[in-house]
Amino acid sequence: xxxxxxxxxxxxxxxxxxxxxxxxxxxxxxxxxxxxxxxxxxxxxxxxxxxxxxxxxxxxxxxxxxxxxxxxxxxxxxxxxxxxxxxxxxxxxxxxxxxxxxxxxxxxxxxxxxxxxxxxxxxxxxxxxxxxxxxxxxxxxxxxxxxxxxxxxxxxxxxxxxxxxxxxxxxxxxxxxxxxxxxxxxxxxxxxxxxxxxxxxxxxxxxxxxxxxxxxxxxxxxxxxxxxxxxxxxxxxxxxxxxxxxxxxxxxxxxxxxxxxxxxxxxxxxxxxxxxxxxxxxxxxxxxxxxxxx
Length: 294
Known about the structure:
Layout: E1 2-6, E2 11-13, E3 19-27, E4 32-34, E5 40-48, E6 53-55, E7 66-69, E8 75-77, E9 87-91, E10 95-96, E11 103-105, E12 113-119, E13 124-126, E14 132-134, E15 146-152, E16 156-158, E17 164-167, E18 174-179, E19 181-182, E20 185-186, E21 188-189, E22 195-198, E23 203-208, E24 213-215, E25 221-229, E26 234-236, E27 242-250, E28 255-257, E29 263-271, E30 276-278, E31 289-292
Parallel strand pairs: 1-3, 2-4, 3-5, 4-6, 5-7, 6-8, 7-9, 9-12, 10-13, 11-14, 12-15, 13-16, 14-17, 15-18, 16-21, 17-22, 18-23, 22-25, 23-25, 24-26, 25-27, 26-28, 27-29, 28-30, 29-31
Antiparallel strand pairs: 19-20
């Protein structure tokens, strides 16, 4: 429960600090924190300004923390992160990476907030070793909450190793994946994704911006998933065989290609003018709602 607020050009040296739980670091321009023995920084808010430095070469655990990097001129030195279950808010050309953790556990990272964001050209969150995103939280109340993963304005998020995404427990809650693009190329890499599931009844929402060409080529099964396609989006799921629970909302001229999809059950399907759902093997739509208006 300690807050460190460093004014411009301040230097804070803590040579023997091994762990810090709860609190914050707010580093103004050109400030330095040297913590050479720090291995664990949990439930801490970290905000670095231009030219500031947090030097913690042994740091491997940032669980529950919020890391806010807003400039490529900052320096956050750490060891390979074996626990990277933190809110990662990266912008202004900053780059975050260096994790060995195979599960990104978002269950304790709060609601109605982005949990991973990259905003602005040059900004990047690089987590290619993560295999599972677990957003299976249960807030035990009936309000609708969400978490977001979002890349925008040229920022990119590398989740290329993720094979499984788990949505929240309660039916009114969701994990939102906001898919923007640069020249039709998605800014979020989910190229290895195989399974979309839920901890119980919550959904994963893919909100795909106009003109994006999103390929989920390894996705085979989906449950509790909403696909919301803006104008001129193309969504290709070449290996998807079944989808139970969720929705497809296709704006004008949007296209979903699902050539091996055989079962689409308990799903709401809404197609606008000029949109297409191409699923030549589809034979089961039990429990679904099909809304064709043009």
